[in-house]
Design brief:
The strands form two sheets. A five-stranded antiparallel sheet has the order 1-2-7-5-4. It has two helices and eight strands, in the order αβαβββββββ. It has a single domain, classed as Immunoglobulin-like. With 182 residues, it is of the alpha+beta class.
């Protein structure tokens, strides 16, 4: 009986393997893999997680941004520098670039237009660790932070800033940054 069962199991396994062996191979198109990076000659390298990050400001009631100059609560974010060598430089500062809402509010980022409808009379401010709004001209750098050997983290904050009575809608903005070493 055991031999008969063993023979049936062996025969079944052989039939399955021959079916798999006769199956046609199929190839389909895949996608594209992008490899992005940069080799730098600097005291540190910007951490990959800091290069393209999203700061979630969340939902804020338009009533909180009803008058020019009113702000939402600040949300913290960091720019992390890796592989720092303090024998090369001991300090780093950051400058942000972006489109200002107008020439009188040069520390307020304009919102991106959205097909679904953008909020109006509001922008985004980037603040240093002391809560001071930073200019968005790409040439005005934050205060210098002392670097550590290895990893250094530079803290910032972001918040909504009303330029008038804000109306509801999507409120996204983008800024780029660069790091200066001293």
């Amino acid at each position: 009986m055991k031999i008969k069962t063993l023979a049936i199991v062996a025969l079944s396994a052989l039939s399955l393997s021959s079916t798999v062996a006769l199956a046609a191979t199929t190839t389909v198109n895949g996608g594209t893999v992008h490899f992005k990076g940069e080799v730098v000659n600097a005291a540190c390298a910007v951490d990959a997680g800091s290069l393209d990050q999203t700061v979630m400001l969340g939902q804020v009631r338009s009533a909180k941004l009803a008058t020019a100059g009113s702000t939402s609560s600040s949300v913290g974010f960091n720019i992390q520098l890796d592989d720092c060598d303090t024998t090369v430089s001991t300090k780093a500062s950051v400058a942000f670039s972006g489109t200002a809402v107008n020439s009188t509010n040069t520390t307020v980022l304009a919102l991106q237009n959205s097909a679904a409808g953008s909020a109006t009379n509001v922008g985004v401010q980037i603040l240093d660790s002391a809560g001071t709004p930073l200019a968005l001209d790409g040439t005005t750098f934050s205060k210098a932070f002392i670097l550590n050997d290895g990893t250094s983290v530079i803290p910032f904050q972001a918040r909504y800033y009303a330029t008038g009575a804000a109306t509801a809608g999507i409120a996204n903005a983008d800024a780029t940054f660069k790091v200066q070493y001293e």
